[in-house]
Design a protein that fits this description.
alpha/beta; nine-stranded mixed sheet; binds zinc ion
């Protein structure tokens, strides 16, 4: 079983009637339900309002893939939890960023770029084209599919060049956007997937649900989690694999921690 956790900010579900009507149990619950329909995935949920945002170290230790949806309250996510999630990704946990999570602290941390884009909220038709045929995340999808109402996100999208671009979106207003991007960060697989504005029923769409299931399968780790991802041990002369003689001037003492 792949253990997935769907993290939802859960703010607009409480404050906006349209969002509440569309996702009465929260977007995170809808996404988890889509994942649980797959026999090999066991999805649970966590929200911003939970203690430690529902992402304690113990919980992350037992999570294979974390999905992240946030929009209005990126700044309310504690830096300590963001650092913990980043360590988990570097250690091998999969991470899937959904829609407005492009501005989530965790995404910006892992990308190292501003992650900004252009946008318009006008209920436009979005047409997603598969740009990586045969990619596991596109498995079972037609060569393109449409969402009748979505928010527009347009290029330029200020992210690093991805490993692979799995989808490109076209919008009625003419913009295009790289809407499915894969990255490797440390030992962790990272997938950004664009659709999912909270006022539209995007996460009920069968093709979108297929992408989420495929994404979780693709992002799952294939090895045990690496611990101590920040360790930088000093390998002393006497422990070198081949005999060497120490020479030249020296700044550090044998075995010392070094600078950070
Ligand atoms: Zn949005």
């Amino acid at each position: 079983m792949i253990r997935a956790v769907v993290w939802g900010e859960n703010v607009h579900e409480q404050t906006n009637q349209t969002v509440r009507d569309t996702y009465p149990d929260g977007m995170h619950a809808c996404i988890a339900e889509a994942l649980n329909a797959a026999r090999d995935i066991e999805a649970t949920t966590a929200t911003l309002q939970d203690p430690e945002h529902g992402l304690s170290q113990a919980r992350l230790d037992e999570t294979d893939v974390l999905l992240w949806w946030g929009h209005a309250a990126h700044g309310d996510v504690s830096d300590e939890v963001v650092a913990r999630v980043a360590d988990a990704v570097w250690g091998g946990m999969g991470l899937i960023l959904l829609h407005s999570a492009h501005f989530a602290k965790i995404f910006k941390t892992l990308m190292g770029t501003p992650c900004n884009l252009t946008w318009r909220e006008a209920g436009e038709r979005e047409r997603l084209w598969v740009t990586a045929r045969g990619h596991p995340i596109a498995k079972g999808l037609p060569d393109h599919f449409e969402l009748e109402n979505e928010e527009m996100y347009g290029e330029p999208f200020a992210v690093p060049e991805p490993l692979e671009t799995v989808f490109i979106s076209w919008f009625q207003g003419g913009e295009v956007f790289r809407s499915g991007l894969t990255y490797r960060r440390g030992a962790g697989n990272v997938f950004y997937f664009r659709p999912g504005h909270e006022t539209y029923p995007t996460y009920y769409d069968e093709n979108v649900r297929k992408v989420l299931v495929n994404g979780v399968r693709w992002a799952q780790p294939d090895a045990p989690r690496l611990k101590e991802v920040h360790e930088a041990p000093n390998r002393t002369v006497d422990t070198a694999l081949e005999p060497i003689e120490e020479r030249g001037p020296k700044l550090h003492a044998d075995g010392e921690k070094g600078f950070r």
